Fold BH3-interacting domain death agonist.
Amino acid sequence: DDELQTDGNRSGHFRNGELGLAPTNEDVIRIIAAQLAEIGDQFDKEIQGRVVNDLVQHFLNENLSGEEITLHMSRVVRELIRSIPSDMEQEKAMLVLAMVLTKKIVNTVPSLLHRVFNTTMNYMNQQFHNYIVEMVSA
């Protein structure tokens, strides 16, 4: 699987101690990353602090499993997608919302980075794997 970097950095894998670039069109990935970042900036302004604080509390609750937190994140993304007006396709908007929420949670409580990152990756793999593959290959 190739990595999708939303910050425009090159994605690659180490092979025999050397960085080998993933066999993808870097220009396409950079264009997609720039578009997602722009959308994310717009959504960032719309997400209220209470939504982020609620998610932070779920991540801080060690009694909740990763699956339970992933389900909660999924519910929050679905609720936000209904409240934020957007004329883009729903999968793209939901993907960006998940990334923006991750950023906001980690900025609020940096010690949650590992748990939030893993949960977001699981959520994105479960919900958007095919969409991401199609977006990159299109």
Remarks:
- Residues 26-137 form a domain with the Apoptosis Regulator Bcl-x fold (CATH 1.10.437.10).
- Helices lie at 26-46, 49-60, 66-83, 90-108, 113-137.
